[in-house]
Design goal:
The complex is a heterotrimer of chains A (about 260), B (about 300) and C (about 230). Chain A is mainly α and about 260 residues long. Chain A contains ten helices and no strands. Chain B contains eleven helices and 14 strands. Chain B starts with a strand and ends with a helix. Classes of the chains: A mainly alpha (about 260), B alpha/beta (about 300), C mainly alpha (about 230). Chains A and B meet through helix 1, helix 4 and helix 10 of A and helix 2 and helix 3 of B.
């Protein structure tokens, strides 16, 4: 039996090799968040420093998001297009682990995206970027990243089923930027959207990240936010594992592993 | 086994057994269900009904065990990561198959050398010729040193030189003690390589035997080969109507037409041939021993009626 | 699907604006007009992409049909599509985000939108001309559609940008279009905005001309080097 960590690492490595072969494909993923952040920063320009931080963190968040969502679907679609999806499914490794490896690489790009946005903000917009509690900031950032990746896995599973899933996830990108309260408090949104916001792990993650960035003594809410996000993330992983099994079986039954 | 795919039943009823160390061939025309059968046996497709056991493991219930112990070579232009090189391709699959790290890199090198790809191992697969890609497919199918290997039309589309080498490689694998299930639409290939052959058409196995066994099936017949000029479709049809004529194949080109008539009549048929073709010119006419191809033809046509 | 995209983009900026205590109507209007860029610039750039990847480009270019009319013909569909998107977006804007069209000179607005869509399609031709040469027009399409959000006075006036960047705004026909659009909503007539429209048309035609020239140039190059199909 192939070991899980080896499969994940190998998939990660393969994703990296492909990125190095075609680096320009990263651009579409990061353009939207970058532009949105730029606009937000300009709109916030009149206000004080903490707005700037808000925008930057939100932008970084969107950068992570955009990349994950787009790439999770692309992971499966790519295999289909290359004609390797069947061979990969036919291998004894668990398809979930293979896609996880890819998701991790996407998360990494998301992170670099965030760093890029941060740099632009600091150097172009002169946003003061004092991180009040760097350790907890990094901590909440990494956890949020994992949460986003886990959600990406759920979306990836839909792609094993059909290629039309692409349209669906493309359409989700912007709404999620809005609903997760990345760039403004969700309090501004109409109340009936709140349930959607609450099941998104990143919504909680962003609150925690902001808290760690603005005050060295994080409020208690920080820990409850982290806790809720962790619980949601675990739920995501379980759902993803189930979905992958279901979806793979269905595809093998219907013969949809091959590009139609 | 049976498999229904949306509205088309690709495989209606296929049953056979393959022994350890055997090279078994599945032969049939395009669309007969060969690839679908292989995909079911290799867990890429789930059979709608029926049971299949590979190396003792059920393909529906013990999926991982089956996958762990077989090699699959579907071949073709797809199925490889073209933007990376051969070594990375093999390494990836080695990891997916759980090949022990201690032997992995050594095995990759050995396989690539065996396939004659070692000097291009670091080039991107997109730069490979068709033959090279096929060999890489083969290497990939062997990466986990499987006991049982499935080869789907391994020589289709290859230059004759390369096809010949591929067949030699297949023979070498059998000598090493592997078991192979091969599909092909080249009869001579099946004749040359396989211990037993199953002929499949329209999703059903119409015959199953050793090559000589299958030839015996047509042993009571002779094949009259006619080369001529001016032979028409109508005339060919007339042959089919004659009793004791089992099958007729016609290759009608502009400048030359070749008819092969399988019949139990033997040389008695010659006068009928001359009668039917009296308006055409006959260059050559001879009577031959039936080959496996003739047996195949007979069986295929037979199942059509 | 495009509807969801449009609405969420607008919501996003509107809420950001709200958070920053700005005038959201301004933002909503800008976004409503910018919506068309998906149908125009984005789609036009991808026309060549699709053809190239679909393998139909060699066939298309093999015909003796004059190039410009063919592409312009296809662009017309996009223009009307774009206008439809803008109309729907304005519906959202008035219903949800408090945009008041009461004083608007609707006829003038429609004409402004039409001309903007037209010139933006032409602009797409220019960028499409560039991307024809490269493997992935998608990347260009993405960049040039999103970048409009920064430069064209969609969410904030051009004057809010750093001095150095401002001149760039005037390359895009959309900048003039949005400007004129805002004026007509406040009641301006066609004559009032004629300067804007004139400038926009000039920019648009230059873009189309250069775009066309680039197409022919790259087409000849591609014929010589055999790159008409996707590698």
């Amino acid at each position: 039996m192939p070991e899980t960590h080896r499969v994940i690492y190998s998939a990660f490595r393969m994703a990296m090799l492909h990125w190095m072969a075609d680096p320009q494909w990263v651009i579409p993923n990061i353009i939207a968040p970058f532009v949105f952040t730029f606009v937000a920063l300009t709109l916030f320009a009149g206000a004080d420093g903490s707005f700037g931080l808000y925008a930057v963190l939100g932008g970084g968040m969107m950068g992570m998001w955009g990349n994950t969502l787009y790439a999770s679907g692309f992971a499966i679609d790519f295999e289909r297009w290359q004609g390797t999806l069947e061979e990969v499914v036919a291998a004894p490794s668990n398809l979930l682990h293979v896609i996880t490896g890819r998701s991790v690489s996407n998360a990494l790009f998301g992170l670099t995206n965030m760093v890029a946005i941060l740099l632009i903000a600091v150097f172009v917009f002169r946003v003061p970027l004092g991180l009040a509690n760097p350790v907890l900031f990094a901590f909440s950032l990494v956890l949020t990243l994992l949460s986003v990746s886990a959600l990406g896995l759920i979306f990836a599973s839909s792609f094993v089923l059909t290629r039309s899933a692409q349209i669906f996830t493309n359409g989700l990108e912007f709404p999620i930027y809005v609903i997760s309260g990345s760039m403004f408090p969700i309090a501004l949104l109409p109340f009936w959207t709140y349930p959607a916001s609450f099941i998104l792990g990143p919504t909680w993650g962003i609150q925690a990240i902001r808290a760690a960035a603005t005050s060295a003594d994080v409020p208690l809410a920080f820990w409850s936010d982290i806790g809720i996000m962790l619980a949601i993330t675990v739920a995501y992983v379980i759902v993803a594992a189930l979905l992958f099994k279901l979806v793979e079986t269905k595809s093998r039954r219907d013969g949809t592993l091959v590009q139609a | 086994m049976r498999r229904k795919k949306t509205q088309v039943t690709a495989v209606k009823d296929v049953s056979f057994e393959v022994d350890y160390g055997e090279l078994f061939g599945l032969v049939g025309p395009n669309g007969a269900g060969k690839t679908t059968t292989i995909k079911m046996l290799t867990t890429m497709l789930i059979p709608t009904s029926g049971v299949a056991k590979v190396l003792g493991y059920d393909v529906k219930k013990d999926v991982t065990k089956v996958r762990q112990n077989i090699g699959i070579v579907l071949g073709g232009e797809r199925g490889l990561y073209t933007r990376v090189n051969a070594i990375d391709n093999l390494r990836y699959f080695a990891d997916l198959y759980g090949v022990p790290v201690s032997v992995r890199d050594k095995r990759i090198k050995e396989l690539l050398q065996f396939m004659g790809l070692w000097d291009r191992a670091k080039d991107r697969v997109e730069t490979y010729s068709k033959g090279m890609k096929q060999r890489l497919h083969l290497a990939r199918g062997l990466i986990n040193d499987p006991q049982l290997i499935f080869l789907d039309e391994p020589t289709t589309g290859l230059d004759p030189e390369i096809a010949k080498e591929t067949r030699n490689m297949i023979r070498e694998l059998i000598e090493k003690g592997k078991t192979i299930l091969l599909t092909t639409h080249y009869m001579f290939e099946a004749d040359e390589l396989c211990k037993r052959v199953g002929i499949i058409r329209n999703g059903e196995v119409v015959a199953l035997d050793t090559p000589s066994g299958l030839k015996k099936y047509v042993m009571d017949t002779s094949v009259v080969e006619v080369q001529g000029f001016g032979i028409t479709e109508n005339e060919v049809a007339k042959f089919k109507g004659i009793p004791d004529v089992l099958a007729v194949s016609a290759d009608l080109n502009e400048d030359k037409q070749v008819l092969k008539i399988q019949t139990t009549k033997g040389s008695e048929i010659i006068s009928e041939v001359q009668q039917i073709l009296k308006n055409s010119r006959i260059y050559d006419l001879n009577i031959k021993e039936p080959t496996l191809e003739d047996a195949y033809l007979r069986l295929i046509e037979g199942s059509r009626k | 699907m495009k509807l969801v995209l449009t609405l969420s983009q607008m919501s996003f900026f509107v809420f950001v604006g709200e958070y920053a205590h700005l005038n959201v109507a301004y933002i909503a209007i800008g976004n409503a007009i910018q919506t068309m860029s998906w149908n125009t610039v984005f789609s036009v750039i991808n026309i060549t992409g699709q053809d190239k990847w679909g393998g139909t480009l060699p066939l298309l270019l093999a015909t003796p049909a004059p190039r410009l009319p063919v592409f312009v013909g296809r662009a017309m569909i996009h223009i009307f599509d774009g206008m439809l998107s803008v109309a729907i977006s304005f519906a959202f804007a008035t219903l949800l985000f408090g945009v008041n069209l009461g004083n608007a000179n609707v006829l003038a607005l429609v004409i402004v939108v039409f001309l903007t869509a037209f010139t933006m399609s032409g602009f797409g031709l220019l960028i499409g001309g560039f991307s024809f040469h490269f493997r992935n027009p998608m990347v260009f399409a993405n960049i040039f559609t999103f970048i409009l959000l920064i430069f064209c006075g969609v969410n904030f006036p051009v004057s809010s940008l750093p001095q150095v960047l401002q001149p760039i705004s005037y390359i895009f026909p959309l900048t003039y279009g949005i400007n004129a659009g805002r004026l007509t909503i406040s009641g301006a007539t066609l004559t009032d905005v004629s300067l804007q429209l004139g400038q926009m048309l000039i920019v648009g035609f230059i873009a189309m001309f250069v775009g066309y020239a680039l197409f022919r140039l790259f087409e000849n190059m591609a014929r010589k080097t055999g790159r008409l199909e996707a590698e």
